Amino acid sequence: MSYYDIDAILTDAEKVPCKFELDVPELGYLDNNPSQPLKAGTLVGLPLWLAEPLALTSRSTSSSEEDSKSFISIDLPPSLSNEVLSALKADPRAVPLRDQSHNFYGLGTRMLDVFEEREICAILRRTFVTRAADIALHARKAGATEDMGIGTGEDFLRGLEEWERILFRKAHEGTKGSKEWLEGIKKH
């Protein structure tokens, strides 16, 4: 992704649940307590761009286990919770991904940079492949009109997250281009 990619910027701005592993002076305002330090064990939602380096950096270079801990520990965001993953396992088409996160797959792949969860990777892959077939079908049907299916499949389009919307647009444009090409051949 590009440095200027708005989807990457929005994905990095998604808040993830974090637990501080040490007391931090002057950061009590993150827990609505400005005059106090942020206590160890406090749960706070931090943007992914900040949480990732804090979780991957150890406190010191010493070899003692207490000092080699990271500043925070990260949990999976609610959009990748067990409930959502279970629903995706059951039927990926039934889950409106945009309600979970506008950049669901982007967030999923960024979280896979932090967590090495093979199961999440497999669920995301299966979800994308299953939903891509439906997206292509809807884009082909919408190819008969100029409005990209607005009106006929609004509910379908509302549930698509950004990667899926891009896929829909590309499939729609491909169908429309193929149709124009075939009409041009028939004329000659």
Descriptive notes:
- This protein has 188 residues and is mainly alpha-helical.
- The protein has 8 helices and 3 strands.
- It has helices spanning 6-12, 48-56, 82-90, 97-100, 104-114, 118-142, 154-158, 162-187, and strands at residues 15-20, 43-47, 72-74.
- A 3-stranded antiparallel sheet has the order 2-1-3.
- It is elongated.
Topology:
Elements: H1 6-12, E1 15-20, E2 43-47, H2 48-56, E3 72-74, H3 82-90, H4 97-100, H5 104-114, H6 118-142, H7 154-158, H8 162-187
Antiparallel strand pairs: 1-2, 1-3
Helix pairs in contact: 1-5, 5-6, 6-8
Give the helix proportion (percent range).
40-55%
Q: Between the first and last Cα atoms, what is the distance in angstroms?
A: 43 Å
The stretches of 5 or more residues where confidence is low (pLDDT under 50) are: none
Query: Overall 3D geometry?
Result: elongated
Reported for the largest beta sheet, the result is:
3 strands, antiparallel
- Topology as a string of helices (H) and strands (E): HEEHEHHHHHH
Q: Beta-strand percentage?
A: 5-15%
The helix-and-strand class reads mainly alpha
- Could you report the average pLDDT, rounded to the nearest whole number? 86
Count of DSSP strands: 3
Structure annotation, total helices = 8
Instruction: Please give the radius of gyration in angstroms.
Output: 22 Å
Q: Output the strand order for the largest sheet.
A: 2-1-3
